[in-house]
Amino acid sequence: MMINYPGLLKLKTKQVVFQEVFPACDSGTLEQLKEMSSKRRAIEESINESSSLTEAIAREMSGGLTLRCERDIQKLEQYLPLLENLVYHFNLVRDKPLVVRWTSDLKLRWTSALISSSIFHLNGPKYFQINYLGFELGMVLFLYGALLREKAHEILQTDLAQSAALFRKAAGVYQHLAHEVLPPLQLAVTVEQPPESVSSVSSFMSLFCLAEAQAVTARRAEEKGNTQSLLAKLHYGVRDFLDEALGILHSAIKECKDISSQLVDFIVSCRMLHELKSYKYIAESLKADGKIGAAVGVLRHALTNVEKSTPKVEAWRIVFKQLIDEITELLRKCEHENDFVWHEKIPSEHELAPPETLKIVSSIPYHPQRWERTLAFKI
């Protein structure tokens, strides 16, 4: 039982032709720049939904990959080493007077998937333009993390272990973004930036993906029939990851005031969902131990809390309603059993012990790959 926030892939970009920006000194450099432009063009057509390829041809060209997100991941993994190499060689000459003029011709333009959908220019979605290669690397890596996360959701029903690993891998990409790629960008750029290029947003995304990885881990534990006590701790661990992520997101909103309120609503809803599941398992564990009064107290507290966090999105409300119905039915049975058999005192909210938490997932570190080919520019 998970809810999903699917909007992170709604990025668009304008075409970049690298060989028209960077003057090559030899034929080898020119060919590499052309190859970069070609690799990026494939990404542009996919995310802009402007490709003329049929599904069958796209699948054949990718070597048989059936999921669109898998094909896009493949395209990014072919483009990123070339981009890393260009960034490396550009940084070697970036202080040369002539090189400064190149950046004005670079015109890197991306939209944001995180701002409110109501924010548009008259002629379509808002494009952010930053003529700095670090911006390109940051946006491409953000998209890469979002695609890994999308694939994790795609295979959730068939391979829980691989799904959790993909969430952890995405968390590592965002962690790398937050600590290595984006801080220099924020120091160098003074124009308006999209939320995807802000370090605190990537820190939030890393924790968000870890929360999803832990949620999948808890689901695996449920399928294996682990104890209610362990399941309660795992779900409260998800809640703690999301609580930390929400704190960072609120700080990020101070830097990027246009971040969609629906994203905040999703995190709040997801946090409450896993808190409710934790309380449900705590109550079942208490009931199994014969502590019916305490179980009633926990369930009443859970249902009182949920009134403060009703999701706004219909699909999320359906999941909530299912869980609330389960908790309400469990409470009815516990109250009936206590009234007629045990007559135990029902503790107040302040008398309840705080839930125990267990966080067992960590990010898989992202190690950037660079295609180590020499690039020679006319400077």
From TrEMBL:
**InterPro entries in the cross-refs:** BRO1_dom (IPR004328), BRO1_sf (IPR038499), BROX (IPR038898)
Query: SMART domains in the record, alphabetically?
Result: BRO1 (SM01041)
Q: Which Pfam families match?
A: BRO1
Family the entry assigns: Belongs to the BROX family.
Identify this protein by name.
BRO1 domain-containing protein
Going by the entry's taxonomy, the superkingdom of the source organism is recorded as: Eukaryota
Q: The BRO1 domain covers which part of the protein?
A: 1-379
Give the signal peptide, or none: none
Q: Which residues form a coiled coil?
A: none
